């Protein structure tokens, strides 16, 4: 009886600890969302395409160059007594990688500009190099706090950093600044964030600044995951680079709108996965490995109730969403957008975090290697023969293949000598079934609404509020339909929200 109580309490505490991170990102999601929406209206299509190309380069380096060292903090800090060595050597490593990234931008941006058929790209060499250097150097900021169990402090940092970042990207263009002026402002923000990383991350940590033996252990652990990132990030972005090299910046802007995703996945998946990693580490330290599968199923089940309806709504209301958010000139992006929402569904199971927490980073590398091998021919053939739809279609196929490989490894990662698990044992079937039924029923209602109200929408007056009205009506219908069907399946939606709130353990 006591064992059941402990498990339940631990599960509640586990999800509650993700609450501050979720709430912080929820608060700043609107500001972050405003960035591409505002720029879509104040920049011409060529500059808008250039904006996406600049950040494509920076984010590729941001995820590749850390080589898994920052993410390794989730493994080492929950198990370490002296935390400063892991923090100090991670900060130094990332500062060095920032310089490498800046050098790569400075040396290669001219070549990339030619590949993208966008000579204007080379004019942004200075701000893009500075932004990349400071962005990489500040990567450990939130991770260092979350991996120490300081989720509230991490939430505050997310809140401040995301709010300031959104402001420096939105306000200058609204005041008449050029895209170059915005990039200089973003580089300055990244520099301030880099300084804050050194001050905040090391606060309260004990031990020497650097320990050679521990750094070698860190690199040994991180190497498979880092190598996986060397394959995964270029693979995930391959369709973006292929399309950028095949079409003009204005058409590339259209494609990126089709690939646009609301920050809901990052808002919920990332903190849930981070806290799951820390929880699995704690369970291992306490000799309670058998509880890991319950923690995984609980996290995945909660994500299913949010991600499945989110994806179903975006798919069914894609024309209303694109028209309201970006304007009617971007409506040709709807078919691309509908395929891109598959990524939301594929994020339900926090598999990569689980494998990292169990030290099985080689499985992640194998998954990304296969995805890369699949992506290269698919992207080349897809973009060549099917254009924009070929690009997004190749990405979707590769993602399904990679997720399937990860899923095949999760049962072994969560198994114990006394209990061997299979794939069916780790999937929250009941939650998936109820969420799917409710989401599909609500999506069908949106399609019926569009068929019946199409003529009325076509005669609405111009203006932003009128343009948002069809999306608002579709959203209200979907939301009500989803909750009603969930209620009839025995699910109480308020209990799902409560599971993500911060609360103390019993």
From TrEMBL:
Cell membrane recorded as keyword: yes
Keywords: Cell membrane, Membrane, Transmembrane, Transmembrane helix
Transmembrane segments annotated in the record for this chain: 21-39, 51-77, 89-112, 124-141, 177-196, 303-324, 330-351, 435-458, 464-485
Main location class: membrane
InterPro entries per UniProt: Poly_Biosynth_Transport (IPR050833)
Gene Ontology annotations for the cellular component aspect, listed alphabetically: plasma membrane
Keyword Membrane: yes
Membrane disposition: Multi-pass membrane protein
Name of the featured protein: Membrane protein
Species of provenance: Myxococcus xanthus (strain DK1622)
Subcellular location: Cell membrane
Source species taxonomy: Bacteria, Pseudomonadati, Myxococcota, Myxococcia, Myxococcales
């Amino acid at each position: 009886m006591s064992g059941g109580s402990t498990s339940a309490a631990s599960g509640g505490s586990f999800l509650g600890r993700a609450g501050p991170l979720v709430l912080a990102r929820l608060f700043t999601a609107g500001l972050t969302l405003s960035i591409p929406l505002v720029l879509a209206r104040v920049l011409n299509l060529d500059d808008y395409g250039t904006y996406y190309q600049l950040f494509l380069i920076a984010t590729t380096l941001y995820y590749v160059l850390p080589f898994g060292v920052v993410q390794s903090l989730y493994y080492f800090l929950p198990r370490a007594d002296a935390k400063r060595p892991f923090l100090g050597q991670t900060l130094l490593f990332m500062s060095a990688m920032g310089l490498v990234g800046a050098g790569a931008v400075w040396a290669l941006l001219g070549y990339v500009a030619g590949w993208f058929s966008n000579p204007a790209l080379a004019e942004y060499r200075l701000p893009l190099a500075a932004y990349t250097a400071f962005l990489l150097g500040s990567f450990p900021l939130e991770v260092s706090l979350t991996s120490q169990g300081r989720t509230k402090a991490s939430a505050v940092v997310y809140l401040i950093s995301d709010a300031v970042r959104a402001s420096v990207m939105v306000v200058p263009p609204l005041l008449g600044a050029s895209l170059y002026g915005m990039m200089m402002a973003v580089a300055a923000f990244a520099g301030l964030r880099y300084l804050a990383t050194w001050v905040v991350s090391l606060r309260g940590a004990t031990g020497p600044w650097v320990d050679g033996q521990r750094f070698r252990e860190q690199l040994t652990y991180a190497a498979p995951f880092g190598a996986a990132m060397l394959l995964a990030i270029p693979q995930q972005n391959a369709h973006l680079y292929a399309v950028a090299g095949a079409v003009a910046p204005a058409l590339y802007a259209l494609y990126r709108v089709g690939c646009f995703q609301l920050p809901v996945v990052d808002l919920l998946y990332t903190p849930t996965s981070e806290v799951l990693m820390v929880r699995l580490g704690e369970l291992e330290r306490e000799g309670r490995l058998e509880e890991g599968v319950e923690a995984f199923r609980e996290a995945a089940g909660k994500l299913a109730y949010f991600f499945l309806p989110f994806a179903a709504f975006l798919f069914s209301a894609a024309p209303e969403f694109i028209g309201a958010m970006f304007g009617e000139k971007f409506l040709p992006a709807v078919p691309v957008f509908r395929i891109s929402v598959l990524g939301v569904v594929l994020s339900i199971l926090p598999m990569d975090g689980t494998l990292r927490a169990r030290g099985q980073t080689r499985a992640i590398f194998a998954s990304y290697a296969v995805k890369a091998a699949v992506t290269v021919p698919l992207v080349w053939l897809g973009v060549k023969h099917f254009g924009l739809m070929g690009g997004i279609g190749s990405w979707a196929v590769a993602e399904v293949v990679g997720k399937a490989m990860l899923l095949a490894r999760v049962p072994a990662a969560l198994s114990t000598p006394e209990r061997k698990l299979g794939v069916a044992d780790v999937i929250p079937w009941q939650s998936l079934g109820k969420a799917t039924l409710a989401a599909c029923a609500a999506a069908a209602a949106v399609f019926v609404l569009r068929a019946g109200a199409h003529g009325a929408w076509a005669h609405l007056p111009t203006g932003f509020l009128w343009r948002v009205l069809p999306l608002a009506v579709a959203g209200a219908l979907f939301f009500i339909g989803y909750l009603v069907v969930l209620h009839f399946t025995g699910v109480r939606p308020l209990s799902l929200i409560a599971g993500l709130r911060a609360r103390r353990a019993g």
